[in-house]
Amino acid sequence: MKYPLPYFFIIILLIASCKKEKTLAIDLEISPEQLEVFAKDLISTPLYERDIAISPDGNQIVYTLGNYNQTIRTLVNIKKESNKWGQKVILPFSGNYNDIEPFFAADGSKLFFASNRPIGGDSTRTDYNIWYSELVDGHWNKPIALDTLVNSQQDEFYPSVSANGNLYFTATKTEGIGREDIFLSTFSEGKYQAPIVLDSTINTKVFEFNAYINPEEDLLIFSSYGRPDGLGGGDLYYSKKDKTGNWREAKNLGDIINSDKLDYCPFIDIPRNNFYFTSDRAKPAEERINTVPELTIEANKVLNGMGNIYRIRMDKLNLK
After folding, report:
1. In the chain, where are the structural domains located?
2. How far apart are CA 50 and CA 19, in angstroms?
3. Are 102 and 93 in contact (CB under 8 A)?
4. Contact yes or no for 304/45 (Cβ under 8 A)
5. Which of 74, 28, 22 is nearest to 48 (CA)?
6. Rounded-to-integer distance, Cα 261 and Cα 50, Å
7. Neighbours of 193 (CB within 10 A)
8. What is the pLDDT along the chain (320 residues), one digit of tens a residue?
9. Cα separation of the two ends of the chain
10. How far apart are CA 269 and CA 56, in angstroms?
11. Within 10 A of 199 (CB to CB), how many other CB atoms are there?
12. DSSP character for 318?
């Protein structure tokens, strides 16, 4: 069939755009000097992305992908094989319930996450609990819930595990300090112990949540909402341990990271020296919206106010 000239050019443009999309690659080795949207149009899209985790060997990425209002939230996996990244796939155990906040164990053998799937055989339970899946022969096994010393009938969120197995997570408990706090459950004799709330150098009377712990357990990065030095909808803070092993007073990471929107879900890709986090920041329309199609276009841009994943080289944080 012979196409009229305008249609011919349209087809050429479509072919070119498809080729461009197919060659779009993920490069974990880049350490950007300036804050950037990570893997724009591939991982960071108009949908809601958050909670990135990168395996220690750099061959797997797992992140949370949700619909616009986050009534559906799944764990998406991308694997690198033969030096090439594969397709985005929902992990085989995810997709039936809301699964969020993945975190690889230091040796890459386990993937921790939070989920509202029923626990303990109780089909009426819809609270979030902490689970893990073990990697066996290249496949993730059926998830196992942590025991009731950690998982209560309230919500437990954002597991983060140091090299010695100690677990940091978010919860609201009667023994807490604020409205939401960061807790520690030490790993001893093959079991997680009763969690304790971190002290006032970390937790305050407002909201502290989503804490990343490094393998050495001497750096904690977390979000807080409601502090006097906050920049807006929730900021990222950090604390380092002193010579006695106690956490120092937490400090705001500043406007190189934080915005007037919610900034949260921190993660450090240590081998590649990059800091990742999620932000709900948006890019406002440059001109007045005149038509419904124009509004639709704006609503479906990557920077539409839904969560996206950002990164910057770690030493730009200037942690002291």
Report:
1. 39-317
2. 27
3. no
4. no
5. 74
6. 14
7. 15
8. 444 445 444 444 444 444 444 434 899 999 999 999 999 999 999 999 999 999 999 999 999 999 999 999 999 999 998 889 999 999 999 999 999 999 999 999 999 999 999 998 888 999 999 999 999 998 999 999 999 999 999 999 999 999 999 999 999 999 999 999 999 999 999 999 999 999 999 999 999 999 999 999 999 999 999 999 999 999 999 999 999 999 999 999 999 999 999 999 999 999 999 999 999 999 999 899 999 999 999 999 999 999 999 999 999 998 98
9. 67
10. 8
11. 10
12. -
- Is residue 281 within 8 A of residue 1, CB to CB? The reply is no
**In angstroms, how far is CA 181 from the centroid of its own chain?**
18
Spatial separation of the C-alpha atoms in residues 44 and 209, rounded to whole Å: 22
Q: Please, are residues 255 and 231 in contact by the beta-carbon 8 Å criterion?
A: yes
Core vs surface per residue 8-34: b (16+ CB within 10 A) or e: eeeeeeeeeeeeeeeeeeeebeebeee
CA distance 303 to 12: 28
Q: Amino acid identity, residue 21?
A: E
Per-residue tokens: 86: 């594969």
**Structure tokens that stand for 113 in this block:** 């996450």
CATH for the 39-317 domain, from 3.30.2000.10, 2.120.10.30, 3.90.960.10, 3.40.50.2300: 2.120.10.30
Neighbours of 131 (CB within 10 A): 22
Chain centroid, CA 101 distance in Å? 6
Model's pTM, two decimal places? 0.91
For 89-112, b/e burial (b = at least 16 CB within 10 A) is eebebbeeebbbbbbbbbeeebbb
d(CA 27, CA 41): 14
Cβ atoms 232, 257 nearer than 8 A: no
